[in-house]
Amino acid sequence: MDFPDELKYTEEHEWVLVEDEIATVGITDFAQDQLGDVVFVELPEVGDQLETGKPLGVVESVKAVSDVYAPVSGEVVEVNSDLPDEPEMLNTSPYDDGWMIKIKLDDPGEVEDLMDAAAYQEFIEQD
Amino acid sequence: MKKTVLNQVHRDAGARMVEFGGWDMPVQYSGVLAEHMAVREAAGLFDVSHMGEIEVSGPQAFAFLQYATINDVSALSDGQVQYTALCYPSGGVVDDLTLYRFAADSYLLCVNAANTDKDFDWLQQLLKETDYVELQLINRSSEYAQLALQGPKAEKILAELTDSDLSSIKYYWFAEGDVVGVATIISRTGYTGEDGFELYCPAKDGVKLWQALMVAGGPYGLLPTGLGARDTLRLEKAYALYGHEITADILPLEARLAWITKLNKGEFVGSQALIAAKEGGLKRKLIGLKLTEPGVPRENYPVFCDGLEVGYVTSGTLSPCLKQGIALALVEADCADGEQPLQIGIRKRQVGTERVRPPFV
Fold it and tell me: What is the CATH number of domain B7-50+143-236?
């Protein structure tokens, strides 16, 4: 399983990539593997205001419904509009084609609270 | 948790294991969608050894089963299988099952894993309450392993391993034969809507039979298949699942099972309640719904008509073949056949549907 070093991670298995106060968000390789075949994705709309820890959307596999939580607070500035039509990208390319949304950070300092790759890997091994 | 004889084989194959009805069972190996399509297009092999087997034999076995089950046992010949159910006097369902007739005085009931003990106790209780004495009731569940080989390539794969004339075994018939040296009940039945076989063998031979089938099936595209695909496959064909479409609180007449409910065969357990319910008019009906928008309907989601809640989803999934949400829903009878559109509540949305006369695929 792959956990790129340049990303930050949450205990709810989201990843965050921060570039110029914009956070790109998706679910981790571990999350997609646990879910199995993803068949449906529900995303927020551009302009929605997200709050850390609150659901931002839903990912459904054949067997299960999972909420996806906002890893940081801020305004949604872009959503991956290809994803609802091709939800399997969450399985095949969780860190690239399977990105979910971009958030304009309210507080760039919030990112410091998230785990780095090594800490996340340790977290899922313990879990 | 109980384990089938194939537990280690599944783990070695990388299966994801889950608890199901008290059993540690494989839910998927390569992935539900791939396994589903393998069964529709080639073949899949399921370990269904968790299912229960109850023997009923003796001079009064026929009369007792005719009283205990809702289908007409007199319609069966030796070597034939019947889909049927046990009902309570209320008309609600104890369990659905397949009934095998070996001889006029020898039958085997194949029942749901989680219900095996409940069914056996229920049958024993019925025996005590009635005058049937010349028969034996034996729970043989632990003696059998059961494998379901399902899909259009099933006959070709099995033919590589047996001399039995498979083409002579018709749908819902069975034969006893030798498969790679294993004494096997070869039953042309299944729960996927595809051609295929359910193979009953001595528990000690389950691993040998599984491995021989996997090797023989490789060139045909056979995949090991788990409970995840088993559920999506049966739902596309609108087959009822105990605990969902059939429960102690749902009549078989409401659950699209009138075709196995033989109200004119004479008295049986539940017959009075079922006849009364039919004469009084059924209040609920199980129907098929297909989403007209993206989404995945799931068990217990509400069904709406004109803004009013008129029922609920008993089973739902995304159909791997249709790539659309499909559901079986138990709704008020007035809404079942009408023209008024029905919606399924998914989180905060009411998602549009169209009625589908099952099966979906």
Answer: 3.30.1360.120
Q: State the CATH architecture for B283-356.
A: Beta Barrel (2.40)
* Distance between B226 CA and the closest CA of chain A, angstroms: 12
Are the Cβ atoms of B228 and A40 closer than 8 angstroms?
Answer: no
Domains and CATH numbers, chain A: 8-119 (2.40.50.100)
CB contact under 8 A, B27 and A63: yes
ipTM metric: 0.91
d(CA A23, CA A77): 10
Give the Cα separation of B134 and A69 in Å (integer): 64
Chain A residues in contact with B31 by the CB 8 A cut-off are: 36-37
Q: What's this model's pTM, rounded to 2 decimal places?
A: 0.96
- For chain A, 127 residues long, give each residue's pLDDT as a single digit of tens: 999 999 999 999 999 999 999 999 999 999 999 999 999 999 999 999 999 999 999 999 998 999 999 999 999 999 999 999 999 999 999 999 999 999 999 999 999 999 999 999 999 998 7
Which of B228, B294, B347 comes nearest A63 by C-beta? Answer: B228
Among residues B89, B78, B86, B237, the alpha carbon closest in space to that of B150 is found at B237
- Domain definitions of chain B by residue range: 7-50+143-236, 283-356
Q: Where are the alpha helices (DSSP H) in chain A?
A: 29-35, 89-92, 117-126
